[in-house]
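Q: Structure tokens for this one, please.
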Amino acid sequence: MTYVVTEPCVKCRYTDCAIVCPVEAFRLDEEMLVIDPDTCIDCDVCVPECPVEAIFPEDKVPEEWSHYTQLNAEKAPNLPVISEKLDPLC
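A: Here is the predicted structure, written as tokens:
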């Protein structure tokens, strides 16, 4: 299982979650962050750090955001790693 960044992160993009990730699984998109499922170690440390509650375990992603599981997996390999705090977009 991996964790997935969902809709609340879009056009918000807080990076609090990324800076606590021990394996640098977060990737930076223009509008949001995504998690690389091949890197994520399912440690759960990012979840409480997300101020907009956008991160879910893969098997608990709300139905209306289920497409974000595939979106994270598809986008992650082509995006740069984010491991530093940036100003949010919102």
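A few notes: Helices lie at 16-20, 67-75. DSSP finds two helices and four strands in the chain.
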